[in-house]
Amino acid sequence: MRKKRLYWSDIIPIIGLVLWFWGSEIVKKYAEQTWLSPIIEWMDMNFQFSVPFWSVFFFSGIFVSIFVRIYNRRVSELEEQLEDEKRIMALLSEEQRPLQMRYLLSKAAQAFVERNAYAIAAQLFHYEIMIGRGTTRIMVKNIGEYAREGENVNIFAQHYYYVPTKLYRELQDAQKQWSAGNIMPTIYLANGLKLRLKSKAIHKYKERDAVEFAFYRIALGMWGTHIGTEIDLDLDDDVVEKLESLLRSGILMAILMNMTFYVFSNHGIDGKRDRVYYATEIQTPRDKLLALIIFSPSLLDEASSSIESTMTNADQVLRDLLRKVYYNNANS
């Protein structure tokens, strides 16, 4: 509700009316021999204007008052309109912020890839884990990426992984026990998943089986790390190939591994064969994001120490680039 305001122009007709009234013959006649008489005489001496003048002054004051009010009302309307436009622009700016951040993150990914001779692409993901009673949903959203021209790289805007909540909690418990030095829950989990996968015919495999295969590989990785040696999958090649074709599990495994970084390879038969994938979690001022670096198969031709050094350096360079993006955006 608009507040009523008193403008200086409103006082003009009031003054004019008062002076018109005090200068009238009626007031002079009835003011004689009263306490008002000195006031009337003082006004006659100091305001030598006729009554018509005060009437003109009064009506002119009314006109000025009306004009000023119309003018100020228009100014107020324009100010309100300007404030509305500012609010709209602020809303639009807020809606454009994710697009702006995606552009900046993609530029950071591009700068990283162009600096690293082995890097084919870099992808950045935001993820959320929503635990349900029967099914846990993991949402993965692409928030920035860059790939070298001519390279075949799978890029998706958003993807959902559906994991049995019972299995998800079993893995969490195994990871907790593993961190405390107890490997047995991890072994039980791995053996149980292997038996389930082996008990089903290949042509009956569904995406759920591919999810269990991803959990199986995570459990084997934890087991192998505990004893200091890599443990074989103990599954036929055609079984592994079928399960890998049903689900892009590398990102899912990177999210669930609960480690600083995760390295995996592509064992397919297309142009992506033997590519090295390096996934790592990066803490930002807002939340965690998952960074996936795809290295050329030529990296495998290097010595082990050189491969490890390349990955470590790449990890640090990408973190520094992303840190600058979030820092500059927070101060803009």
Description:
With 332 residues, this protein is of the alpha+beta class. It folds into 2 domains: 8-92; 116-330, no CATH class. It is built from 10 helices and 6 strands, in the order H-H-H-H-E-E-E-H-H-H-H-H-E-E-E-H. Strand 1 and strand 2 form a beta hairpin. The model has no long low-confidence stretch (mean pLDDT 80).
Keywords:
single chain; 332 residues; alpha+beta; 2 domains; six-stranded antiparallel β-sheet; 6 strands; 16% strand; elongated; membrane; coiled coil
The geometry reads as elongated
Nearest-integer average pLDDT? 80
Structural class: alpha+beta
Distance between the termini: 35 Å
Helix content: 55-70%
Q: Largest sheet, described in full?
A: 6 strands, antiparallel
- Helix segment tally: 10
Number of strands: 6
Query: Which parts are unreliable, with pLDDT below 50 for 5 consecutive residues or more?
Result: none
* Beta fraction: 15-25%
Instruction: Please give the order of strands in the largest beta sheet.
Output: 3-2-1-6-5-4
**H/E order of the elements?**
HHHHEEEHHHHHEEEH
Radius of gyration: 40 Å
Q: Give the total of domains.
A: 2
Coiled coil: 68-95
Keywords: Coiled coil, Membrane, Transmembrane, Transmembrane helix
Transmembrane segments: 7-23, 51-71, 210-226, 246-265
